Amino acid sequence: MKLALGPLLYFWPREQVEHFYRRVADLPVDVVYLGETVCSKRRFLTRADWLRLAEWLAEAGKEVYLSTLTLMESESELRTMRKLVGNGTYPVEANDMAAVSVAAEAGVPFVAGPHLHTYNQETLDLLASLGARRWVMPLELSAETLEQMQQRRPAGLETELFVYGRMPLAFSARCFTARNRDLPKDDCRLCCGDYPDGLPLGTQEGERFLTLNGIQTQSGRVCNLLTELPRIGKLGVDVVRISPDSRHSEAVIRAFHEVMTGEVSAEVAQQRLDETTGEIYCNGYWFGEPGMATVAKQ
Amino acid sequence: MTIESSKRVELVCPAGSLPALKAAVDCGADAVYMGFRDATNARNFPGLNFDEGSAAKGIEYAHQRGVKVLLALNTFPQPESWERGTRAVDQAAGLGVDALIMADPGLLRYAATRHPELRLHLSVQGSATSYEAINFYRRQFGVQRAVLPRVLSFSQVARLVANTEVEIEVFGFGSLCVMVEGRCALSSYATGESPNTCGACSPAKAVRWEEDTEGRRSRLNGVLIDSYKPGESAGYPVLCKGRFEVNGRVDYAIEEPTSLSLLDHLPELLKAGVKALKVEGRQRSPAYVRQVTTVMRSALDACLANPDNYTPQAAWTAQLDRVAEGSTHTLGALDRAWQ
């Protein structure tokens, strides 16, 4: 099983992004997804910058993919996506059918990202026939559904599972961060950059419910399937994905790596991670429960 | 713009029940859309929708009056519900519906292969927001119409229409999804059921109301969605339309309870080349369907007759606001300022 670092979902300054991936080069992840998947106005890094990072990580032995924007509305966003797919060196993570279409026509291998609608084996067959080499399970599906999907998975198609991070649950035309700051989206002043791990949204009772990240809405709780790794392995999952954050990614990567190599038991690794992060975790989707639920190990 | 070309704009109205279907047909809908009574469609609510018998009756009623019937099979079947999905496609084909409204790529492929004569529409749940995506569904499955997610501005809609031969349908009136349809799992995060998996958003069985001297509170699977002072009017707790705390401020952090209404902007839509106008609300009453269909029919006819001098009557707006969620309306994403 390989360990992947998903695309950076937040908007960080260029120096922070470069520093982050410089560290990643030395960390035990096998696969790295690069690029802006949330908002086309986030342009601290140019396409050339991302490609330079890709080259750097590839030289460090990482399997690199370039991720496409999830919500595509304008002609310029389509143009950017076409250039990304046609980069000539790296395969892509397609996060919208527009990208699947362009990749399929160009014969570029792609990973079917978590926001495509891959809910059944027939859709897996279709994506594989179009050139998918891997699919990422939609966040809201369960272990039971995964097991059924795996039983008739097309030959050669890898399966990837989101196992750690705040879950990207929804996308909108509206920017919720700008809305909170009373700024129109057209003059948002890139205010999402003020929140390196998103902007917490709580209920009126003070319960952390969701996380606002520009046009994207994430879970309030952090999804964590560390202690489920043995079962995930048994289900034939090829890649597990950690979603980057500004504070704990390194500790999280090490924890998953140690469990995957058998150096440390999942329970011990989890205990250490609890001490490091202090997060309230959820895992409900995996057990067929509401996503925000925390189900004790079965 | 010629009246001839714009005449082809279809008014598509919701039919959550046989009485609602009849109301839509009688009040001037060009087409009605319905769903089966299960998780195969995105309005899987208790007491709503059609079994095979009532569907046949509805189709007969509509067809006798020259009105088309579209059937929504727009959830995403999973391995354990796959057979129900394909059976629903076969049933719909057997019933003689005029088109299927679908979202799942696998099920679209099944329908296109097994029933090549059947007209296919891409549901809003398919999340196709660009001509590149829509043309993909055209090439793969022969989709003839696509319903646009409520995320594009007027100019983006016009550009999209100009770059595809697929007919474009937009929402003209009804409850407003602030998220890209088909790309929202907020409901399953809180309740375990989402539009994609179960055809339900913020399902009624997860709703709990509390009332005491301080007022009323609505919860969704325990999560406080909103609280109301005594006497304050309260709405159904759709989770994105609750009041939450962000940065120390309690407010409608995602969206107010409001409806989408394009009544004031029909000429722009016709000019953009939109082929159909959809009214949301299969979960609403026959009275709602009657009211909205009547107003939208009058408005569309007035606009088609004289697009350059179209002005919506004040009475139409008032009638629509009376049945609108939150009794107010917005243009949604079509208006950049809303975004």
Describe this structure in words.
The complex is a heterodimer of chains A (298) and B (339). Chain A is α/β, with parallel strands linked by helices. In chain A, 33% of the residues lie in helices and 21% in strands. An 8-stranded parallel barrel of chain A has the order 1-2-3-4-5-6-7-11, surrounded by 4 helices. Chain A is globular and about 45 Å long. The mean pLDDT of chain A is 97. Helix content of chain B is 35%, strand content 22%. Chain B has an 8-stranded parallel barrel with strand order 1-2-3-4-5-6-7-15, surrounded by 6 helices. A 3-stranded antiparallel β-sheet of chain B has the order 9-10-11, with no helix packed on it. In chain B, β1, α2 (18-26) and β2 (31-34) form a beta-alpha-beta unit. The longest helix of chain B has 20 residues, at 286-305. At the A-B interface, α3, α4, α5, α6 and β7 of A face α5, α6, β8, α8 and β11 of B.
Layout of secondary structure:
The complex is a heterodimer of chains A (298) and B (339).
Chain A: E1 2-5, H1 14-24, E2 31-34, H2 47-59, E3 63-67, H3 75-85, E4 92-94, H4 97-106, E5 110-112, H5 121-129, E6 132-136, H6 143-151, E7 158-172, H7 176-180, E8 199-202, E9 208-213, E10 216-224, H8 229-234, E11 239-242, H9 249-260, H10 266-277, E12 281-282
Parallel strand pairs in A: 1-2, 1-11, 2-3, 3-4, 4-5, 5-6, 6-7, 7-11, 10-12
Antiparallel strand pairs in A: 7-10, 8-9, 9-10
Chain B: H1 3-6, E1 10-14, H2 18-26, E2 31-34, H3 52-64, E3 68-73, H4 82-95, E4 99-102, H5 105-114, E5 120-122, H6 131-141, E6 145-147, H7 154-162, E7 167-175, E8 179-184, H8 186-191, H9 195-198, E9 207-212, E10 215-220, E11 223-228, E12 244-246, E13 249-251, E14 259-261, H10 266-272, E15 276-279, H11 286-305, H12 314-323, E16 329-330
Parallel strand pairs in B: 1-2, 1-15, 2-3, 3-4, 4-5, 5-6, 6-7, 7-15, 14-16
Antiparallel strand pairs in B: 7-14, 9-10, 10-11, 12-13
Helix pairs in contact in B: 2-3, 2-11, 4-5, 7-10, 11-12
